[in-house]
Amino acid sequence: MSWFPTAELHEPRKMVFASCRGLSPVRSRALLYLLEDLACALDDATLLVPEGSGFPSELQAKSARFFFRNGSSRLARSFTPSLPLNGSPHELLFIGCQGVGDLSTLLPLFTRDGIAKRKTCFMEELWVKDLELRPLALACLRTCDFLLVGCSETVAPLEKLTGVPCFHLPPSVDTLRFTPFGLDGKTEIRPRTIDLYWMGRRETELHTAFHQWSRDSGRFYLFDTAGNAPFQNHIEHREHLIDLIQRSRYFMVQEAKAGNHAVGHQHEIGFRFFEGAAAGTVMLGPPTDAANFKEFFPHDEVFITVDGSPADFVRTMQELDQQPERRAKIGRRNVAHMLRHHDHAHRILQVMKIAGLKPGDGLLERIEHLGSVAAATLDSI
Length: 381
Fold this sequence. Notes:
- The chain is 41% helix and 15% strand.
- It is of the alpha/beta class.
- The model is unreliable at 53-84 (pLDDT under 50).
């Protein structure tokens, strides 16, 4: 397997995004791929993508990790796929990972010098438990100038483990695609024909009760029937998902990896909060213990807290059905907040500021446009 740029690199670029697309085209990764796409569309950036036989063999991966941990990056490179990328160094190499398991595949990007003046790795899901159970697998992160992690409580322990400055990069979405009010911020563009949507991981007892409620009442309860399935096109997958959430009256939310004992007692804001808020649906869920929730969602009624039985959820939905103005205000406040603070453009700008890079006009113009759409969205309340 080799890594190749998706565009001719006659001149050094501001940012080069090393992407796992093609190697792992599954639903949970589509969000990161879209962030990479938007960065390339808005600023002086390009993609570096793998081509060839796919993930290295387990023997290759173990050999590479052994030599890397023991201080021989030269021998480590001999057990990893090639990286035929020549030319002047770029400003920043951004290595995008979903978790620890990606590091073996991406190892040549950590061991190869001269790709960029600075290097960062973004670990979308890295839990404190991962640091405790797999510290040696993270040794390659010490070659980075700074690290980005999607789990806020992992920042300090990761910095202590690696000795590398570490920053929290929260979830984000393409809010201009998600907004249900159009770019003029006025009328909803799709009817809310789905009564309740519970996407992804769910609690069995509550799901069973919702399923029975749907059968008894004739209400439309939508839920996933497959796990982390492959997609054919990450853009089409996300557009389909957006369409479903925009059509949902109520949307179940919970903390990331809720109920998963593998992450211990770590509390992180789930992706569903960002997706549901951006689509203007009314979110329902149990209380969150994420310490930074108010930092990212400081306004009132971000989601309706329901901490009780399935009957409590059904009763809450029935009460909200009788309050259309309240539902409308909840949706518009959330959409406007997402447009102003949690678009992919805001995360790209955050990375550039950390790296000391000057944002281009395309990125700054998008952020200004997001503010205008947010203002129009609130004007219609």
